[in-house]
Amino acid sequence: MKIPMLLIALVTVMASCITDQESDYERIVSRDTRLLEAYLERNGIDAIENPLGYFYQKTESNDVGNQIVNKDILGIYYEIKTIDGQMIDSYLDETKPPRIFLHDEGGLIPRVMNFSAGLAKEGETFKIYAPSYLAYQEYSFQQLILPNSNLEIKIKYANILSEEEVEELEDSLIHAYLEEQGKVGFERTEEGLYVKVIDESEADAELAAVDDIVVFDFELTQMGSDAVISKSTENSPLQVKVGDQGNLDFLNLILKDSKAGMQIEVFSPSQLAFGITAQVFPYQIRQDLFNRGVLNSVARPFEPIYFKATIKEVK
């Protein structure tokens, strides 16, 4: 059987591209390994080299802690800086709730913090010396993150959380936030939403039922943040079919029995909103990564969201 010349040419080009890509990757690995080894030697640091390419020290052990395994939900405290001393992010105050991520492929940026979790037990602290290709790679963000930065990371894997514990934590966060901000008039539903309704509808206004279309203006943010996750545009309200499986769970819950003229405010736990999304440190780069198509959600995982809406029409 004769092989078409076009196919031969295409395979040749593809093989050439793969070779080039591999050689580029090998050069990056060689460069980062050389820089990290020089840094460790210069500072007298005795660290273990992991086959994935990063170096680590266990600085705090916990022999009785549970071994971290895939799909565990982890609460951590950490500090991220470059080996040149540039601080990127620090969250070490253990009087505050831990920051949380799912130990899973794609669960965390920078991903080396996720990889090293597999070596740890609950309560242990690691120092990680990470090559750029396991960190932010060629990504840059203002003056905070420069391309090809090798990192030194301190991370405490403080606890392994059950789904029930995460729900309780988010509920306590919402409750505390309402008290701190002096927000009143919110009622907790059995599903775990905190809802406030101002009813300025007509007495005989139609109540929205499953399969009805509700038209509304809205704004959605992470609780405690002014950064907008999503909002309607002027003169372009959102239209949603009540009960649709594609809706966020909290939307179906609050839109049922709504009516034109209602103003609704909601604090929703993550499990009724965007669910488990990838975690990103530092928080400042999340929107930029979302804009670049790296993330499929700008909402942070395991944190409540705040939603406010004005119902314009039920049809």
From TrEMBL:
Keywords: Isomerase, Rotamase. InterPro entries: PPIase_dom_sf (IPR046357), PPIase_FKBP_dom (IPR001179). GO terms for molecular function: peptidyl-prolyl cis-trans isomerase activity. Belongs to the FKBP-type PPIase family. The lineage of its organism: Bacteria, Pseudomonadati, Bacteroidota, Cytophagia, Cytophagales. Pfam families: FKBP_C (PF00254). It is an enzyme of class 5 (isomerase). Coiled coil: none annotated. It comes from the Bacteria. Its EC number is 5.2.1.8. This is Peptidyl-prolyl cis-trans isomerase. Residues 71-161 form the PPIase FKBP-type domain. It catalyses: [protein]-peptidylproline (omega=180) = [protein]-peptidylproline (omega=0).
